[in-house]
Amino acid sequence: MSADPNRITRHFVSIENKRQIHFRKAGKGPPVLLLHQSPKSSKELIPVIDGLKKNFTCIAPDTPGNGNSDPLQEKNPTMIDYGKNIKLFLDELGIDKVCVYGFHTGASVGGSFASQFPERVNVAVLNGFVALNSDERKDIMSNYLTPLTYSWDGSHLLWSWARLREQHIFFPWYKISDETRMQSNLPEANQIHENLMEFFRSGDEYRKPYGAAFMFEGDKVAKSFQSPTIICASDWDPTVRFIPRLPEKLPDCVQIKRLGDKRGSEVTEWLESIFVKYASGDSPEFKAPKPLPNRFWQDFIDLNGIQLHVRRSNGNSRPVILQHEIGDDNNCLSRLTNSEINAIAFDMPCHGESDNFNLDKTYNLETVSDCLSSAIKKIGIDDFDFISIQNSSAISINICESLLNKVNKLYLVNFQYISNSEKKEFYDKFSFEINPSRYGEHLIKCWNFLRDQSLFYPWYNNKKENLILNQSNLDINYLHERVISLLKAENSWHKMCRMLANVDENSLLDSSKVNIGFAGNKSHPHYRFKAKLMQDKGDSKWTELNDSPLSLIKQILG
């Protein structure tokens, strides 16, 4: 855990040996719980955390199914289930009593928790408390929560962009009228992109907490509160219309507050004045998450001011570290094996859920390799195999050279064996900057980039002499997962590719003292390099892979 209490850090906690909750924390003093709206994550609460961390230990979990938290296991969870989840979360953290702040869906979650467990609540501030009538509830449940399904042409990406954009123009987004028109500015493309990434982290699970919030009968629950509660909304917020629907007779512990035009920091300052009156307790102690049996689990490794995200499984084998290719993330672990083996996969810096470097000053082969080497040392494994996927080979060789006495063998999968001049020409055209555009055009560019890699080699040369067909990588679920990984990497992917153009991988191979093997499958475009590679590196072992991605690691390790 981070030693600097003012730094916002990310963590996981394991619940009932079945699932994990991701949360952000910062600050010191009495604990306060901050709950986000749907379909976002605790990331949206970073400004609130920054405003409160001086006097409180701020804890902001991702709602199950949102952000990086696993979904609840109930098929159709209700807001009662989400309230109980908060109780289990606090139990696991060893926190007895908290102040609660929830916004929109977070207000419903906080209200559910407070109504079920009043003894655990110092005060609950519920901003944007929903109280739909039966007709509104029926309408919104029929139209608002459109299933997220993927299309071969990537059109679902543009639909999702338009859907989130429209949500800032009309509420509900599917009703176009003067009455439903939002009186606010349309966000810039970068903000819509940020919202879209939160939406895609949830996937189709977004409908469960959202739906539970719409089904939540806030007007009835308000009559059951037994701990201090403030139900509030700003005048610009569409949920302000629900305040008059609350019962006239409420428990003495409940207050109703109109916040006028308060926004952002003004709301946080007001919230702080409330929490100061009610908060109690000391700064909690946080521990590393417990491994989950028979499944992948997640954690963060803290390294000198940045955090690396790690995905793991605790099977019975020599540990194997998997390094994803540039522009991907450690989700590839679950595509390439099951949880029966002892596997570890880090997100590179600036990829997946890992923190970013300063791309202009410190993002190079050595700093990336050193960072990942330090993370391996911190985990404390002394005998492992290492598998490197495609263009992560130079990074992986550097890592294994620095940990030479710990590495059993390094396997380079689908290695692109080309000359330095060919490599420079390739990377000059291979990657591009990802800049959010007003109508989401950048999304289709990323989708077709990934799809064309399985149709042409190289992808940017769409001529008949360059035709290939790698059918397994044309699966729409695979493509959607990969495009999300690419969008998470943003322009660090492009910068890393530009850096690789000037790395002499062949010299790295020739001078390496690491025991190196190669592997590949016939349907991959890099398979064409096998003959030349084995001719030049005859002492190295080649492992022939079939086209079943889920067995890749087992095929390599034998």
Structural write-up:
By secondary structure, the protein is an alpha/beta fold. It has three domains: 9-133 and 209-278, Rossmann fold (3-Layer(aba) Sandwich), CATH 3.40.50; 148-202, no CATH class; 297-557, 3-Layer(aba) Sandwich (Rossmann fold), CATH 3.40.50. 35% of the residues lie in helices and 17% in strands. It has 18 helices and 16 strands. It has helices at 46-52, 79-93, 105-116, 134-143, 155-166, 189-202, 207-215, 218-221, 264-278, 332-336, 365-379, 393-402, 420-430, 441-452, 476-500, 505-511, 530-536, 552-557; strands spanning 9-15, 19-27, 31-35, 57-61, 98-103, 121-127, 229-233, 254-258, 297-303, 306-314, 320-323, 342-346, 384-389, 407-413, 516-521, 542-545. The strands form two sheets. The protein has an eight-stranded mixed sheet, sandwiched between helices. It has an eight-stranded mixed sheet with strand order 9-10-12-11-13-14-15-16. The longest helix has 25 residues, at 476-500. The protein starts with 8 loop residues before the first strand and ends with a helix.
